[in-house]
Amino acid sequence: MKADIKNICCIGAGYVGGPTMSVIADKCPNININVVDKNSERIDLWNSSNLDSLPIYEPGLDKIIARCRGKNLTFSTKIKENISSADMIFISVNTPTKTKGIGAGQASDLKWVEACAREVAMFATGHTIVVEKSTLPVKTAEVIKNILEASQPNSNECEKKFDVLSNPEFLAEGSAIKDLLEPDRVLIGGESNYAIKALSNIYSNWVPKEKILHTNIWSSELSKLTANAFLAQRISSINSISALCEATGADVREVSRAIGLDSRIGTKFLDSGPGFGGSCFKKDILNLVYLSRFFDLDEVADFWESVVKLNNWHQHRLSKLIIKNLFGTISGKKICILGFSFKANTNDTRESAAIKICKDLLEEGAFLSIHDPKVSKEQIQQDLGLEPLNSDINYSERFDFFNFEEKWVFENSISKAVEKSDAVVVLTEWEEYQKINWEEVSKKMRKPSWIFDTRSILNKKEIINNELLLWRIGDGSNEDRS
Ligand code: NAD
Ligand code: UGA
């Protein structure tokens, strides 16, 4: 049995695998960390000499990569070789919602996790600790264990031995490096004291011991799903209240502040917005719904499902509000979308509210100009399933927007994006949108010009003072202005 961990292999160089392994490499210079992925384009980007080309935008990540890559941190497609030499293997692959078969639309698709387990079973040597980093439904560790235990060594190999741990990741995109450096807790679920100690030793290089929790493996898996469900539930709760505020004249910012000061409720995750996005909240709640139904707990399933339903309703509610305020029709109108990522400080667009809202607006005939500081034109094209126009449009006085119905254009500059638009919709809370000069913007827009602030980040006074009409999420005074 290998006494301590010298070689780690992480399967999956995504939003979790990349940043997590970078931080471990930085904090544990004596451990070699090899991150592998079957996607060679993604690996090439991780190895790019230009740190602006890393496949993931995450503040602080580039500096760590610059320090560790080529020393004790590598990125490659050499899956077999790196599994063979590893004492510890992290499985950090995607676990999206199943699109067909039993559990379609709710259960997680575990085919990538299972594929990893089979590769580990085949290529691992000696004693290997396998760590579930991906978010997995309760009892997945058992599946992994069964696959690993069924593997037989070749006649010339010594016996293979595996321990399986659950070590879910709680980082949030945009603050991943900070979350990894200063986690609220590290959760390790498992049975083998040896394996638990080996993994705890790695984290204790920078995480205080009292923050490293040990649980049984199922509690660990269920805690991850539950944490995401609770966080998402807070957002649906406050978004439901934002609608009530708009209807009654209250202000959701004031309500959030008032309830957040109750220490039992707390101030975080009470910002009303365009609805939660990201690759995990919806997927993990639906997984919980599937599990609950599987165990005949329909009331429990209905409760959690309502969190996702409210989120869907809320996103369409915003599209409808934009249309209503623009005199009930948006065909032949130009709408400028500021922000396409699902939150600020990430280039990730998975499940972004912007996708649904942009699709709704296009369907109603709008012409969209879309700006985001980190999301590429190609990514937006993929998400909307629609090719963009060239951005060299000349908005002359007699410009005919009716020729541009259901079309969109990607703009690198905010100034060009707002030109001749009837409305600006802020969907992501990027810092640069908070610094917009509304006097300049007002001069460039068509009148009447609407600003829809779905993140409540703009300066209300400045907007109103510049002959712009403002709609803000959860602001009960909106109705007085329309
Ligand atoms: P991702 O899609 O960004 O990355 C997954 C990577 O795994 C991809 O690059 C894919 O090519 C690779 N992969 C899949 N199967 C493979 C195989 N058999 N061999 C080699 N490579 C393979 O996903 P992600 O966002 O990093 O999420 C990974 C897991 O972590 C998910 O279960 C997710 O729920 C969980 N999680 C994500 C976050 C987040 O913020 N994104 C946070 C916490 C937990
Ligand atoms: C979330 C969790 O916060 C992480 O702990 C978890 O590890 C991760 O999911 C995961 O399992 O993938 P993430 O989705 O990256 O992280 O980002 P969040 O900050 O949680 O934001 C999720 C969505 O909720 C975003 O669209 C964000 O704009 C929205 N949100 C968040 C609000 O609308 N209001 C808030 O007050 C907070």
Automatic annotation (TrEMBL):
Q: From what superkingdom does this record's organism come?
A: Bacteria
* Domain UDP-glucose/GDP-mannose dehydrogenase C-terminal: start-end pairs: 336-460
Tell me which species this is from: Prochlorococcus marinus str. XMU1401
Q: Provide the E.C. number(s) assigned to this enzyme.
A: 1.1.1.22
The broad enzyme category this protein falls into is oxidoreductase
Q: Where is the active site?
A: 280
Q: What does this protein do?
A: Catalyzes the conversion of UDP-glucose into UDP-glucuronate, one of the precursors of teichuronic acid.
- Protein name according to UniProt: UDP-glucose 6-dehydrogenase
Question: Gene3D superfamilies of this UniProt entry?
Answer: Cytochrome c1, transmembrane anchor, C-terminal, NAD(P)-binding Rossmann-like Domain
Pathway field of the UniProt record reads: Nucleotide-sugar biosynthesis; UDP-alpha-D-glucuronate biosynthesis; UDP-alpha-D-glucuronate from UDP-alpha-D-glucose: step 1/1
